[in-house]
Amino acid sequence: MIRVWTVEHYGPVAKPERSDAEYNSHNDAISSLEWRPDHPDVLASCSNSKNDTNIRFHDARTNKQTAAVQLGNEKNLVLSWSLDGLSVVITCSNDEVVFVDTRKMRRSRQWGLSGHTKLSEVRWGPTQNLLTMALDDGTVRIAPLAKLDSPIWRLNSHASHTTCLAYSRDYKYLASGGSDALVSLWHMEEMTCLRTYSRPDQSVRTLSFSHNNNWLAYCSEDGYGTIDIVSTLTGDVASTLNLKSYCETVAWCPSAPVLAFAGDKLTHIRAMTGHLVRVSCIGRHDRDVTASMETEKGTVLHHDEMTVTPFGSCLKV
Questions:
Q1: Residue 217 domain-assigned?
Q2: Out of 10-24, 39-53, 91-105, which region has the weakest mean confidence (pLDDT)?
Q3: Any residues with CB less than 8 A from the CB of 144 and at least 6 apart, and which?
Q4: Which one of 23, 31, 73, 113 has the lowest number of neighbouring Cβ atoms within 10 Å?
Q5: Reported pTM
Q6: How confident is the model at residue 90 (pLDDT cuts 50, 70, 90)?
Q7: What is the domain range of residue 161?
């Protein structure tokens, strides 16, 4: 289920309260959702179940599903919008990526990775004509859409599996997390690794840049819900949030210093900034959920029951 809330300024909203809209379009576990980058009311979502292989689109203005595109029989893991909002790329469990044309609402292309290398995640960027891929050999490959088999950059980012990716808002920086418990920060204009962060004890699960690109938040699979916030300018650890519970995903508000995070025991949604924030939440029967937070200027993505907190309340500098 997808739930959408509109949270007023400084207004606490608990998850059990009535939401502004609910979408029951998926019939199984939901793995990913993302707001369209050039349209604040359009939401795309997918399931990681073979029982539900549709990519579904919703319009927050009408609170209805507007389209559904049937893919193959594989699980859909992660989706990512193109920069112009006219296409969506989906990472599938069989190491293939599928492209959906959102104007015609149909599958436009399918591409499979050759060899024994496995795909973890695919993100559109750093430009409209490039795709970024995280692979289990520790590399990050950036290839033109016309020649995905011929990457123009191959970044040796990790000693083992590259697990997740995140671009800064202006696509100046790329962060990658790996199963080697490292986070690598890359400068995309110079294609150089600026620094690495090694505080996680286990594989890095999720990454997110702040709205001004000055801060990077990440969380590892250590089971303790520890979130580190580091400076992209100096590399210093600015703050550590100890949640004492499992953390699935972190995400920054795209227009304010607000950090959203989610985990097993985070049961409230709180908006404590002077910005109007729309919150979406996806649930399934066994309590795993996915959520997305949106303001007038863009969106962020995160999972499970959600808490939104102002960065100033946790920053220690």
A1: yes
A2: 10-24
A3: 129, 130, 131, 150, 152
A4: 73
A5: 0.78
A6: very high
A7: 30-260
